[in-house]
Amino acid sequence: MTRQPALTEIAAQVDQLHRIAQELYDRSEDFPALNRNLKRILASIHMLRINLEEDAD
Amino acid sequence: MTLHQGRGADTARQKLSPHSRRISKKPMNKSIPYWNPFLETLPRERLERLQLRKFRRIVRWAYEHSRFHRALYEKAGVEPDEIKSLEQVRLVPKVEKSMLRPIQSKDPFPYGDALCVPLDEVTEFHQTSGTTGQPVYQPDTWQDWEWFSECWATLLWAQGYRPHDRVFLPFGYNVFVAFWTGHYASEKIGCETVPGGVLDTQARILKMQELRATAMMATPTYVLGMADAAQRKLGIDPAKDLFVRRITCAGEPGALIPSTKERMEKLWGAKVFDHAGATEIGAWGFECEAQPGGMHVNEAMFLAEVEDPETGDLITEPNKSGKLVISALDRLAQPCIRFDSKDIVQMSPDQCPCGRTYKVFKGGVIGRADDITKVKGVLLAPSAIEDVVRSFPGLSHEYEVVVEKRGDMDHITLKVELAEGSGQDASSITEKLKTELRFKTNLGYEIQTHPYGSLPRYEVKAKRFKDLRKRGDA
Ligand SMILES: [Zn+2]
C-alpha cells in the first residue's frame, strides 16, 4: 500500500458516495429529473475515482 | 417504490430546499500549482504501474464491448490479460485513422462497431475536420465528456487559470471538438467563461475589452490575426489596452515555435501556452507555467509511446524524434488504444522545474508525419521555416511555402510579406533570410517578397505549406 492515509480515507468516502448515488439511480426510473441528474453525479463520482486511482488498491 | 412516493417524501423535500445550501468556510487554495497534486507528482515507478493497470483495463473493455476491437485483437492473437508489462503493450495492434472510416458504414449508425456503449449512452457528437479524407465521427458519453474536460482542466490549471479569471473563447463552436472541452474545463475550474462564438474579430476584441477578459484560447494564427486587426482596424494595442494575461493555443503548432511564441507574447503582453489534443484522442499534452520549452504528457490519463517512423522500433532515449502512438486510458464510448497520431515528438532529457513527474516532449509536437517531408533528400519540418520567418521583425506574420518539382529537381519557394510600414529593403531581408534558412534547414530557397496584406489570411487553422509533388495538395 503506497497511498497516503488521507487519500485512502477520501477514496473510501468516495466509494460510499458512489454507493448512495448508484442506489438512488437504480430507484429513479420513473423520475427523469432525478435519473438524469444522478447519471451526471455518477459521472462526476467516477471522475473522482479516476483522480484518486493508484496502482495498489 | 420510486423516490417521489411514500413516507418521508415531505421531509426529503424540505431537506432539499435551497435554504439548506451551505457554502464552505474554507475556500480552495488557489496557490496549489497542480490540478491533481496526487497524480501529477506520482513517482515514475508508481505512475507506470498505474498506466499498465489502466491500459490492461481499457483493452479488456474494448475487447469485450466492441466487435471491431475484438476482431483486431483476435487476428493479432492478443488476449488482454497477456499484457504483463509496459513493453508488452506493443503486442496490441495499432489503430490508424484510415481504419476508423470503414467502421462507420456498419451498425449502429452513425458510428459503427467500435462503439462500446449503447447508443442511448452517447451524449456528445463530434467529428474530425476531414482534411485528410472522410471525417471520423467521435461519440462520447457524459462520463467521457467529464473526463475530456478534466484533461483540459489539468492543463488550464497548470497554465495558471484560476476561478477569478474571465476567460474569453473567440471561436465559433461547431461539430469539431475544438474548444468545447476548453469551455467546459474553464467552467469546471470556476472561471467566468465567455462564449465569443458568432461575432466577427472586431466585435470579439471590443467585447474582450468591455469585459476585461483576463485569458483566452485560440489558434496561433488567430492570436496573431486578432492582434493585427486590433491595431490596424480599432487602434487598440492588445498589450496595453486589453487585459488578457494568459493565452492557451490549440489546433496548430506555433505556441512552441520560439519566434512565433515571442511575437504573440509581445503583441498581447501575455504568457502564451501550448496544448495538444485531437478529436479521437483527447487533450493529451500541455505546456505548464514553467514554460520548459516543451509540453508535458498527461501520463495519468494517457500512455504515450514514441516510435521510429521508419522501423517502428520503440524510442526510449531523449533527443531522438519519432512518431507518437497514444492510448487514452479512461475514454470508454469509442476507445483510443495505440492510436497512430502521426505527430512527431521528441522526449526531453530534463525534468521540468514545475515538479510534475510527467514526461516532457521538447518543442511539443514538432511536426506531422504527413508534413515532414524529404526535399532534395533532406528532412524538412515546416515549423523550422516558420521559426526563421517569424524571427524577422521586418516581416509580417504571414508566409507560404511551396515545394514542387522543376524538371527532376525539388524546388522550394518561400513567399513572405514585408511588415506594415517596416520601410525595410526587400533585397537585404531576402539575403539574410536565405542565409538563416540555409543554416537552420540545410536547404536553399527561392524567396519572393510581397507587399503587406497580399498573402492569404486565415481565420482559424492556416495552410501555409503546399507540397505540389503530392496530389491533392495544390
Ligand atoms: Zn512543467
Q: Average pLDDT across residues of chain B?
A: 91
Distance between the ends of chain B? 66 Å
Number of strands of chain B: 21
Number of strands of chain A: 0
Structural class label of chain B:
alpha/beta
Secondary-structure element string of chain A: HH
Q: Helix tally of chain B?
A: 12
Kindly identify the CATH topology of the largest domain in chain B.
Rossmann fold
Return Rg of chain B in Å: 24 Å
Helix content of chain B: 25-40%
Share of residues in helices of chain A: over 70%
- Secondary-structure-derived class of chain A: mainly alpha
The largest chain-to-chain contact, stated as pair and per-chain residue counts, equals: A-B, 24 and 23 residues
The CATH fourth-level homologous superfamily of the largest domain in chain B: ANL, N-terminal domain
- Label the overall shape of chain A: elongated
**What is the name of the CATH architecture of the largest domain in chain B?**
3-Layer(aba) Sandwich
Mean pLDDT rating of chain A: 91
Strand content of chain A: under 5%
Distance between the termini of chain A: 7 Å
The shape of chain B, in one word, is: globular
Low-confidence stretches of chain A: none
Structure report:
The complex is a heterodimer of chains A (57) and B (474). Chain A has 57 residues and is mainly α. Helix content of chain A is 75%, strand content 0%. Chain A is built from two helices and no strands. The N and C termini of chain A lie close together (7 Å). The mean pLDDT of chain A is 91. Chain B has two domains: 35-368, Rossmann fold, CATH 3.40.50.12780; 373-467, ANL, C-terminal domain (GMP Synthetase, Chain A, domain 3), CATH 3.30.300.30. In chain B, 29% of the residues lie in helices and 22% in strands. In chain B, the strands form six sheets. Chain B has a five-stranded parallel sheet with strand order 4-3-5-6-7, sandwiched between helices. A four-stranded antiparallel sheet of chain B has the order 8-9-10-14, covered by helices on one side. Chain B is globular, with a radius of gyration of 24 Å. The relative contact order of chain B is 0.10. The model of chain B is unreliable at 1-9 (pLDDT under 50). Classes of the chains: A mainly alpha (57), B alpha/beta (474). The A-B interface holds A 2, 4, 7, 24, 27-31, 34, 39-40, 42-44, 46-47, 50-56 and B 1-4, 36, 38-39, 42, 46, 49-50, 52-54, 141-143, 145-147, 150, 301, 330. The complex binds zinc ion (ZN). Zinc ion (ZN) binds next to loops of chain B.
